Fold this protein.
Amino acid sequence: MTDSKHTKILIQGETEEGQTFRPSDWAERMAGSSSTFQGHRMIYSPLLQPMVKNGQKCLLLDPDLKESNPSLYEAIMEFAKSNKLKMCRED
């Protein structure tokens, strides 16, 4: 059985109408809002990570972000809803 606390939210770079979301670096931009720099490299937070799944840009959102940074969590969820991006659960 899957522990729902560890189930992440996958925000896909595709709209409900099946269109690819633009700009193409949207996931990196969103994940950059919680990233840090170490040794001249950007390190993404484990709570908010860009990824590619099935050739499509996505954003992997850990629900723990809601506790650690509720305003960022709400902003990302509102962004996804207002742009009608597909979302699903990811283990």
Remarks:
- The helical segments are 26-32, 65-68, 70-82.
- Residues 29 and 87 are 18 Å apart (CA to CA).
- The mean pLDDT is 92.
- The beta strands are 8-15, 36-38, 41-43, 48-53, 56-61, 85-90.
